[in-house]
Queue: 2 jobs
Job 1
Amino acid sequence: MKPRLDGQVALVTGANSGIGKAVAMAMAKAGAKVGINYVVNEEATQAMIDEIKESGGEAIALKADVSDEGEVKAMFAKLFEAFGTIDILVNNAGLQRDAKFWEMSVGHWKKVIDVNLTGQFLCAREAVNEFIRRGIVESVSTASGKIICMSSVHDVIPWAGHANYAASKGGVKLLMQSMAQELAPYKIRVNSIGPGAIKTPINKDAWNTPEAEESLLTLIPYKRVGEPSDIGKAAVWLASDESDYVNGATLYVDGGMTLYPGFATGG
Ligand code: NAD
């Protein structure tokens, strides 16, 4: 039986493209009411809401920059006004601003840390306040709340040319683990998903030509590039009571990218 999220409210950040979109749609399909956070492209957000409603689900659009404290607070207020509470937060919004280390501007450094790391802190803090205020609702879930941090294989694999991104995801790893440790007594579960290479706009150059894809596959023992739906399925399971004893874990959904593929034939 597939995991279900009936009667639960989920907020997915950066949810109108790529991985966030797949996660939001999968959660809606599993029965959750979904808050779809976005910063740009209102039409794509509305199209998702229409699709969810046509299938009998519920969703609302929540425009907010996750790195802005005021906008995050306003987003949660709007979510509570519509759906009353929150049960699942998926901290997915993220971006890259790549540069050689010695040429990286402080602006690009700060932008990536602000969105990828501070954004996760700001959203998690609002969600945790509500989880603690409301406590467990037994008919809904065995936990009082679940947080899924979208990390990356680059929370363990260093990444030349992407020092700001790798630093932000390394930060997410210990933010997630520290939250998991501190919040477990309140029955709040906090975990990460570490995607490998997933076909989305963020890494299009790495897979949108046959040559690029072939080169990328040398890093993936399972020999296929991931799809956003691979992450959607993992997120639904991590948010459901099927994973009730999983806390403080990073689930790498990466076709084995974290397995040091270079050592398969050498070492
Ligand atoms: P994407 O570019 O399709 O999605 C990122 C989303 O975040 C977009 O909707 C974007 O508008 C949104 N966003 C950016 N800045 C924001 C802000 N300030 N506030 C709110 N939303 C904002 O890329 P994706 O691949 O779907 O990325 C989703 C997450 O997955 C990111 O955290 C990324 O680091 C992570 N990830 C992706 C891959 C991959 O291979 N695609 C691998 C590892 C990790």
Note: The first strand starts at residue 9 and ends at 12.
Job 2
Amino acid sequence: MTLWQARMGAEPSELLMAFSASLAFDRRLARDDVRASIAHVRGLRRAGVLTEEEERPLVDALGRVDREIATGTFAFAPTDEDVHTAIERRVTELAGETGRRLHTGRSRNDQVATALRLFVRRELAGLGLAVLELQETLLERARSAGGAELPGYTHLQRAQPVLLAHHLLAHGWSLSRDVDRVLEALRRADVSPLGAGAVAGTSLPLDPDATAAELGFGSRFENSMDAVSDRDFVADTLFIAALLGVHLSRLGEEIVIFSSQEFGFYRLDDAWATGSSMLPQKKNPDVAELARGKAGRLIGHLAGFLATVKGLPLSYNRDLQEDKEPLFDALDQAALACRALGGLLATVRFDLEAMAKAAGQPALAAVDLAEWLVGRGMPFRRAHAVVGATVRAAADQGRPLEELVAEHPDLGPEAVALLAPGAASARRRSAGGAGPGAVGVQLERFARRLSADRERVQAWVARA
Ligand code: ARG
């Protein structure tokens, strides 16, 4: 039986129910709905709409529903349109006539918005934790990488040697901004819509501030129409997941490339690699590829949902029911991708020799040669030309760069010393740069940032 049958002269058609039912996915909000319902019942009692004798059986029934859901014994009925209907039906079974008072002064419009915000507050904080775990793995691997170097690439061409720690932390810092976005979005989601009713509030003396406080929300809605129709906290979450997905896809792509025989920088642990059903020798980076691939799905969820809400008139429209599946999937997949990549990165073996060999190629110190000339008074543009011509001559003549540098009147033996492995980056002292001194500072700053972020996210987890 639907909640609105009395208005209709006929039972809803089967196809209408099949098309509009959301129970298959919104049952995931069940415990949040119960929590919000308990706060609502208490509010009704404080308002004098319910007596204590009516409040108690309702709260008891909701408590029982919560246990049934937690233990998987809650029996959903085929006629339950959505999770809200199911819970109200069960409360009425348990509390009898008093159950019929549960929905006083409330609509599924403010109800679903409340449950969804409670859900987002908890799950988004959980996603924040998953990102932090991945960052901690990156930090650990960066710390233990010591002075190991690999080429820094631009255009995927070897550019300058960088510390492996610097390279790993580059990913770490982009994830810090994802954590920042999580915290910002949590603050915006932290507003209670309960008490907004269907669209305009209620004539009953309910107090939305009190229910907001009871649910641990930072504040209540300012406008009932906005409260029931707004889903930008969902869009915020989908954007965070999409951009995080883009960051993870870059990490994934890099693992794919670096673990290829052509690069040979990374060796995947057997527990984090896959085989081939046909080619017996294969060891594949499927985890990294999936992390790369999930970005498409996450971007799709954001784009699809924005299209769903675009142009919706005030206030609630049933289109909004389409918010849940992308939201649930985006949060699940983004967190899973963080954890899987973290597991892979924690166990990957770095082939430091292969990296050092690639990074030690003398031409990667070309700009350091030019800057050495600048230190001796030569304008940079001229120094660039001198070194560029020397590199070209070495390539044309098929001779080692060191020999030509040694012979060059502007360069000579002192300049040759710059071409030794590690010499170039040791001279790089600029803040935030890839030299050992600056990276040492960076490691400290990153570690501090990480523990501050962890505390900030934990505070939300504790409130959820
Ligand atoms: N299942 C609905 C949703 O997810 C609940 C709200 C239904 N409200 C309504 N007026 N039909 O949005």
Note: The two ends are 33 Å apart (CA to CA).
